[in-house]
Write a structure and sequence with these properties.
Number of domains: 1
Number of strands: 7
Structural class: alpha/beta
Shape: globular
CATH topology: Rossmann fold
CATH superfamily: NAD(P)-binding Rossmann-like Domain
Length: 255
């Protein structure tokens, strides 16, 4: 049980990759704080899955784009669970638009959730670790687009590129506190956010043709990588990105 006696906070965990991460950590003994924008039926389903996996936890609602909300989420999580040992910054949004058509509101929403939110909830978590004089784990769910250009998703790529540099910088700054910081960068994963792609056979086949392993990834593929980086097995891993992309970055090209 690699995560026994540890409490993990997983943002955006009502469904998709976030839910898979929450359940996988619970299978290894973690207690899980299921965070999402709303305390919805989906969030409660994740908590039920965590408990079915042998773990325990709670649901705490909060908007990660609000610095006030993220401070409250961390404080409430500590109050309810006693401590937090692992933070998984999974919450994220994207917006498909030509660069010339992106509105300020669209840009703000993507950057506020994906980068600003991760920055300030990480800050609140690190203050907790510092004040309790404990080490910890920070794992960001980034994207291959922290490295790979993606036309019509410039704000998304900017947010993930920023997350990469934030991770590298914090890994150096927080190492003396015993805190490791790493990214997991998924490629094409079969989740609801990709429903449009999944229902377009021509586009889907073109994408799979770019993936050496010739399949889409699953949320569990990503969750297993997060588990490794959150576990004691990764004690000497910090400041790096683990790509979970089936080899997509080898020679990707837009069709």
């Amino acid at each position: 049980m690699r995560m026994e006696n540890r409490v993990a906070l997983v943002t955006g965990s009502a469904q998709g990759i976030g839910r898979a991460v929450a359940v996988r950590l619970a299978q290894e003994g973690a207690k899980v704080i299921v965070e999402d924008r709303f305390d919805s039926e989906l969030a409660e389903q994740t908590l039920a899955a965590v408990r079915s996996a042998g773990g325990d936890g709670c649901v705490i609602a909060g908007d990660v784009s609000s610095s006030g909300d993220v401070q409250r989420v961390v404080a409430e999580g500590i109050a309810r669970m006693g401590q937090i040992d692992v933070l998984v910054n999974n919450a994220g949004v994207e917006h498909n638009a030509a660069f010339v058509d992106v509105t300020e509101d669209d840009y703000d929403r993507v950057l506020d959730v994906n980068l600003r939110g991760a920055f300030f909830i990480t800050q609140a978590f690190v203050r907790h670790l510092r004040d309790t004089q404990r080490g910890g784990r920070i794992v960001n769910v980034s994207s291959v687009h922290e490295e790979l250009p993606f036309p019509h998703f410039t704000s998304y790529c900017a947010s993930k590129g920023g997350m990469k540099m934030m991770m590298r910088n914090l890994a150096v700054e927080l190492a003396p506190l015993g805190i490791t910081v790493n990214n997991v960068a998924p490629g094409a994963i079969g989740t609801a956010i990709n429903d449009k792609l999944l229902n377009n056979p021509a586009q889907l086949n073109a994408l799979i043709g770019n993936i050496p392993l010739r399949r889409l990834g699953t949320p569990l593929d990503v969750a297993n990588a997060v588990l490794f980086l959150a576990s004691p097995e990764a004690d000497y891993v910090t400041g790096t990105t683990l790509y979970v992309d089936g080899g997509l970055l080898w020679n990707y090209s837009e069709q």
